[in-house]
Amino acid sequence: MTSTFPLPDPDAFPDRDVVIYDGQCRICTAAVRRLVQFDRLGGLIGRSGRLSFLSLHDRRVQERYPELTYDRLMEEMVVVDPKGSFHGGADAIQYLSRRLPVLWPLMPMLHIPGSAWWWRKMYQALARNRYRWNRHECEEGTCALHFGSARERQDAGVSIAGSPVAEKR
Description:
- By secondary structure, the protein is an alpha+beta fold.
- The protein has one domain.
- The chain is built from seven helices and four strands.
- The protein has helices at 26-41, 59-64, 70-75, 90-99, 107-110, 116-134, 150-155, and strands at 17-21, 51-55, 78-80, 86-88.
- The chain is globular and about 35 Å long.
- It starts with 16 loop residues before the first strand and ends in a 14-residue tail after the last helix.
């Protein structure tokens, strides 16, 4: 599934945070569309244009960030900040709550001392089940790839080891 929603590209905006997400997941692409809107809303107070986006299936992800494994990226969204630091999963959401003004009201709740483990568990549960919850709505059978046998995944273009057949740019 490819998004027809125009996303800011890191090649066009090299000074922005890069959000790496699963471009074949409906929950993930909907969240990315929402992040684009949140980023634009920051323009109301002069703070828009902080994010750019790459699908984890884009070849540029492995070219730019070889230390990010396919398995990790399938487990969690990762935000790469302009300094090159990685923020993954619930930590990425906490990071974005500090970067996007529209999310500032959530910041106190997301940063309650001692609550990080709970947010991480919630994020992991959502990420782990995202294809299961949407498998009946997926276009092109992409959700089924994550539930079939190794042979079915291989036939569909995903190697048995789980690494993708990267999308062509």
